[in-house]
Amino acid sequence: MSKTLIIYSTVDYHTKRISEFIAKYLDSEESIKIVNLEDINEYNLNHYDKIFLGASIRYGKFRKELYEFIKSNRSLLNKKITCFFGVNLVARKIEKNSPDTNPYIIKFLRKSNWKPQITGVFAGNLEYSKYKFFDKFIIKFIMWITDGPTDTSKDYDFTDWDSVEVFAKKLNSIN
């Protein structure tokens, strides 16, 4: 039985939600564990055949812990079956919703110097109702600049769940 570890790095838990959604479509013969990157030190990565990593963008950056994890584990990751998916609001735009066109994914792969077998990107969600005043103000300003929604009385889920399903099923084909 193959063992898969899905690691997520998130601020507002949408990347965890996407990770859980992906897990539902993975081969039922696999043993699957979903773990927050913050808790990864409790797990032995050598015990897993596949390591999938998902991370979200906040204020234009992936969290530094993500880069530290990859740097510390790059040689092991290069020996495993791996995938990476990023979650960001820029991916809501059709011209930036693929790994080849999404600026955050392109920059991440270059900066991390890691080559996962499969890479994906998904639009995230915008939960104005959960943000504190400062975050709400900054995100609203960013949305205004990028022609996104600025009505803070609503929340928005830009995730194309059909695309996430297709991506998850594709993961079953990598060996």
Total domain units? 2
* Order of SSEs: EHEEHEHEEHEH
Number of β-strand runs = 7
* Main sheet: strands, sense, barrel: 5 strands, parallel
Percent in strands? 15-25%
Helix content: 25-40%
**CA-based gyration radius:** 16 Å
Give the neighbour order of strands across the main sheet: 2-1-3-4-5
Q: Whole-number average pLDDT?
A: 94
Which structural category do the helix and sheet elements fall into? alpha/beta
CATH architectural label of the largest domain: 3-Layer(aba) Sandwich
Provide a count of the helices.
5
Q: Enumerate the spans where pLDDT stays under 50 for 5 or more consecutive residues.
A: none
Any idea of the CATH class of the largest domain? Alpha Beta
For CATH, the homologous superfamily of the largest domain is named as Flavodoxin domain
According to CATH, the fold-level topology of the largest domain is: Rossmann fold
The coarse silhouette is globular
**Gap between N and C termini, in Å?**
13 Å
Which key phrases capture this entry?
single chain; 175 residues; alpha/beta; Rossmann fold; five-stranded parallel sheet; two-stranded antiparallel sheet; 5 helices; 23% strand
